[in-house]
Amino acid sequence: MSRLLSRASQPDAAGRIQNITPDSAGWQYVGFEAFLLEPGQTLSAETGEQEVCLVLLAGKADLASSDQQWSSVGERMSVFDEQSPYALYLPAGERYTVTATTKLELAVCKAPGKGGFPVRLIEPSMCQAETRGIGTNQRHVCNILFGNLPADSLLVCEVRTPSGNWSSYPPHKHDTDNAPHETHLEETYYHRINPEQGFVFQRVYTDDRSIDETMSVENRGVVMVPGGYHPVGAPHGYDSYYLNVMAGPSRNWIFHNDPDHAWIIAADKEKAARQG
After folding, report:
1. 35 and 14 in contact (C-beta within 8 Å)?
2. How far apart are the first and last CA of the chain?
3. Is 95 helix (H, G, I), strand (E, B) or coil?
4. Phi/psi of residue 185, each to 5°?
5. Cα 268 versus chain centre, distance
6. Of 115, 122, 143, 145, whose CA–CA distance to 131 is shortest?
7. Residue 55's closest CA among 145, 187, 153?
8. pTM score of the predicted model
């Protein structure tokens, strides 16, 4: 199995099925956990020196920080519902508790924090949704903690890609600290597939092919992208969802397209203009 792929485990005593740390991934910034909690099950933790974004992927929960509480948070019951999620942002030096009130799929997104921003409940209306691409390159993006809201390090978004379509495509990368042309951001992809027995393909490759891996990713698998281009393809019959977590030296997403495939962008723009 590829070192860039983490398959989901059975839930441990805390309900955790994924646990990506900077040490396990061999990088510096991004941490990611996924949990499947039963009704009444509680998760409590401290953020320490990290900022955390809790994303309620599916289900409802009572949430609490050190001095605030929210009851019965959540609306959607599947990541494939056409609605944005609820999330909770927590700065460094905080504590949080999540108590599932229904079956709950929860993502815990982490990156270095300075404690510069307050605890914030992110409601669906605060997210930014858009559709990108045309034809078999169309996908639906929702920015949860991105340009829509400030943070120290974290960038969090989710993408739904219809059956038979490509996403994170044409291939792009963000592994070089060279603003304003490109920024260095590590990234995780938490994949969900509908129906669940399906799979998607994700390739991660660099210009010099020092990294060049193509993975078949099953439901709730995580792909780690330390660098390079990283397109995703959804086979016919299976819709794709993934949650992206990014962080790096600066909180700025500037990507660089693979020059071999950049012609697709111009061709799509020309086609869209003809259709419009």
Report:
1. yes
2. 45
3. strand
4. -135, 125
5. 26
6. 143
7. 145
8. 0.97
**pLDDT tens column, 205-244:** 999 999 999 999 999 999 999 999 999 999 999 999 999 9
Question: What does the block give as tokens for 28?
Answer: 């510096």
Hey, what domains does the chain have and what are their CATH numbers? Answer: 5-260 (2.60.120.10)
The DSSP-derived string for 111-124 is EE--S-S--EEE-G
What number of CA atoms fall less than 13 Å from residue 163's CA on the CB side? Answer: 7
**What percent of the chain stands above pLDDT 70?**
100
Bridging pattern class, strands 61-64 and 186-194: unpaired
**C-alpha span between 242 and 231 (Å, rounded):** 12
pLDDT (0 to 100) of residue 140: 97
Structure tokens at 218: 């099953």
Burial class (CB in 10 A: 0-12, 13-18, 19+), 266: exposed
How big is the chain, counted in residues? Answer: 276
Q: What confidence category does residue 276 fall into, taking pLDDT thresholds of 50, 70 and 90?
A: low
Q: Is 271 helix (H, G, I), strand (E, B) or coil?
A: helix
Residue 85 to residues 5, 164, 184, 196, 263, Cα–Cα distance (Å): 25, 24, 27, 20, 34
pLDDT band at 270 (very low <50, low <70, confident <90, very high): confident
Residue 36 corresponds to which tokens in the numbers above? Answer: 């499947």
Alpha helices in the chain (DSSP H): 22-25, 263-275
Mean pLDDT of the chain: 96
Asked whether 214 and 233 are in contact (CB, 8 A), the reply is: no
Which residues, 6+ apart, have CB-to-CB distance to 83 below 8 Å?
75, 76, 124
Structure tokens at 108: 């815990």
